[in-house]
Amino acid sequence: MFFNNIMPFKADIFNYDFMHYAGKKIVLIWYNQNRRKISTATIFKTKEANKMIDGKRWNPANIKKHSASDESDAYKNSLSYKDMSVCKNCHNIYHNKRWVNDDELYKSILKKKEDVNYTICPACLKIKTKFYNGVVELSGGFLFEHKSDILNLISNTVEKADYIDPLEKIENMEENEKEKIITIYTTSEDLAQRIGRNLERAYKGEVNYSFSERDLLLRVYWKREA
């Protein structure tokens, strides 16, 4: 484990608050239905976590060889869940020590009604706390001329990623038509990388990758003018 002061996630949580501290850590505070504090968890990087980051891996020359890894994901590593727990936001299910998107399994769990263990998955918790691990910035004149096709490509990329790992999601998307920029925030570095790679394959252009070891954040810049 590469993160300090972690307390397990409570299944009977009704609400939670969070506090950011200069990008270094997030303090989560959980409450029951009477707004009585149940537990807290502090998530922040340690020196051991930083040592696990291989800088060469994020070099633009070999970024495409990067494989998915949960080593540096505090939200996946620090929270514990009961088997067959259901995310109340996206309905993903925690089963056999992993999160899955399974409609049939979800329907079978709902039949139990009072026995359903609702929680919130790591991806939805990131979205709630506005904590993201990937940023993709698209720019250039070509972008808005072919915006529909480009967004369809990104949507298909996310759909395929969801099939492999339902915790890979787009948190938010911002459009600036005046400056011809679209910014996409993702819950994982791998999804951001995959979007950049697929854009380069389909539409060429220039793509650059920048990894922040301090924030465990991957930024992808794709640009094409014509």
What does this structure look like?
With 226 residues, the protein is α+β, with helices and mostly antiparallel strands. Helix content is 28%, strand content 29%. Strand 1 and strand 2 form a beta hairpin. Helix 6 packs across helix 7. The longest helix is centred in the C-terminal third of the chain and has 18 residues. It starts with 14 loop residues before the first strand and ends with a strand.
Labels describing this entry:
226 residues; alpha+beta; five-stranded mixed β-sheet; four-stranded mixed β-sheet; disordered N terminus
Poorly predicted residue ranges: 1-27, 37-69
Number of strands: 12
SSE-based structural type: alpha+beta
Helix content: 25-40%
- Label the overall shape: elongated
Name the assembly state: single chain
